[in-house]
Amino acid sequence: MPRIALATYDPGTEPSKDQDLPVLLRALADAGAEAVARPWDDPETEWGGHDLVVIRSTWDYSWRADEFVAWVERVGKETRIANPAHVVRWNSDKRYLGDLAAAGVPVVPTRYLAPGDPVDLPSDRDYVVKPTFGAGARFAARYTPAEHRTAVRHLARMHEEGLTAIVQPYVSGIDVSGERALQFFGGRLLHASRKRAVLTPGTPYDAAKVAHPDLTAWTPTPAELAVAERALAAVPEAPELLCARVDLVDGEDGRPRVMELELVEPNLFLFLHPGSVAPVAEAILNAARR
Fold first, then answer.
1. What pTM was estimated for this model as a whole?
2. Are 1 and 288 in contact (CB under 8 A)?
């Protein structure tokens, strides 16, 4: 009987935002596994006592990225963890987009402003500012050139906390065709979804945002699938990934570009794709038995 731990976050007194967790636990139990869900920062959990630790919904990690990556590396020395620790370290810092671009993967154009760098923001188009360490649109906002002063204050706030900022052009194609998320599990395309833009004009960077507005099922086009597979092939050291999500938007030329490559704790959206529960459970069991 494989022993499997699903790493999540501690929601405190609030209900967990991971709707998929109880469904996945039941599916693993029905398939013959001993499966539990534990907060990643629970000091009482003996992670090394499991055959596999799956990082599922550690959705508070971006506030404590160094601590989280250290935890992943520690657990990876005690037992098998998915995805591997070196992948988590690389992918938790959005400067990985530069690595993808250097490998020839079409990505949304991205610049980085570290603390102490001269402020250089677009003056001719809308743009997005967000941190290299972040999730759920934390510290992210969309600006027009007329909002320069507000954007500068946003940058100053991030830099005060030691965060490096990403500056990207706002990709207007997202307002037409949305953002598509292609989900891979066990090395194969699992399913895909589409949502509308998260960042609406005038929303403050420190405001809570709906992470997946108007989420619907989606059938990826051959062009979208090709870009997603190129992104996955460009991950350093070509690791075997248990789970991956490739978020795509249409560039100015109408072709798909990578907005994000999520290899740490991608939401699986199983509530939208119930037919994917069994394949996910099977892939986790196979990984645990290796």
1. 0.93
2. no
